[in-house]
Amino acid sequence: MLEIVTYGNEILNQKAQGVTDFGPEVSTLVAEMLEAMRIGKGIGLAAPQVASALRVFVTHVEEDKPRVFINPEIVLTSQEEIEFEEGCLSLPGLYLSLKRPESVRIQAWNEKGKPFSIEASGILARVMLHEYDHLEGVLFIDRLSPARRERALAHYRRLLRM
């Protein structure tokens, strides 16, 4: 069982490395990530959140199937942005309203090494963008203004003391 790393772990601030071998190790990582996401009651999880420096993330939003993204690249994002509350398994208990593009198109590979492209909007687009940020070493709190980020981190520290 993979353990989800939390805020403060250096891997969360590092850019992940591309997958070059679509062998059994990647299939095992993906299966374990899907299980860790389910147990953590999340709807998305990136490999850096389980201490793996690979460019892999998984999603499973309500009314959609579980999805696997390996070496994803953002092709297009909408001009329109939507503000919505986000949380993160690596910052448990912290939820913040954040603007993101309403839709996104991503190219990636599945765990078998087959390329695909997906266009999504709404919650799936938000999750895909959130998890993609993890692969770039960006946390959702990094998208806040400095003052708002500091307030959010102070609140998170209080949550940890409870």
Write the SSE topology:
Layout: H1 24-39, E1 44-46, E2 56-59, E3 67-77, E4 81-87, E5 95-101, E6 103-109, E7 115-121, H2 122-135, H3 146-161
Antiparallel strand pairs: 1-2, 2-3, 3-6, 4-5, 6-7
User: So, the CATH homologous superfamily of the domain at 10-79 and 103-140?
Assistant: Peptide deformylase
Based on Cα principal axes, name the global outline.
globular
How many β-strand stretches?
A: 7
What is the count of helical runs?
3
Q: Give me the Rg, rounded.
A: 15 Å
CATH architecture of the domain at 10-79 and 103-140: Alpha-Beta Complex
The portion of residues forming beta strands comes to 25-35%
Largest sheet: 5 strands, antiparallel
CATH topology of the domain at 10-79 and 103-140: Peptide Deformylase
- Low-confidence stretches are none
CATH class of the domain at 10-79 and 103-140: Alpha Beta
Estimated helix fraction: 25-40%
Calculate the terminal CA-CA distance, rounded to whole Å: 26 Å
Order of helices and strands: HEEEEEEEHH
- Main structural class: alpha+beta
| Mean pLDDT over the full residue set | 96
What spatial order of strands do you see in the largest sheet? 1-2-3-6-7
